[in-house]
Design brief:
Helix content is 43%, strand content 0%. With 67 residues, it is mainly α. The chain is rod-shaped, with a radius of gyration of 35 Å.
Length: 67
């Protein structure tokens, strides 16, 4: 008579399933929103020349002293 051995299915500790992928996607979406909210305006301001300081062409520095 033949002996039949039924091996039990392998036990995997993958109880989270796709939860890690969902959390990763949420983090990527939040980082994308923050980049569009704060990163792009900062990059555009840097490329436009930064701070502009207007200096007049002539300065009147005469000082009248009374003796």
């Amino acid at each position: 008579m033949a002996t039949i051995i039924n091996n039990p299915p392998s036990q995997s500790n993958d109880s989270g399933g796709s939860m890690g992928m969902i959390i990763g996607l949420v983090i990527l979406v939040v980082l994308g929103i923050l980049f569009f909210q704060y990163g792009l305006p900062a990059i555009q301001n840097m490329s436009s020349g930064g701070v502009q300081i207007n200096v007049p062409s002539e300065l009147d520095v005469t000082v009248n002293q009374e003796e």
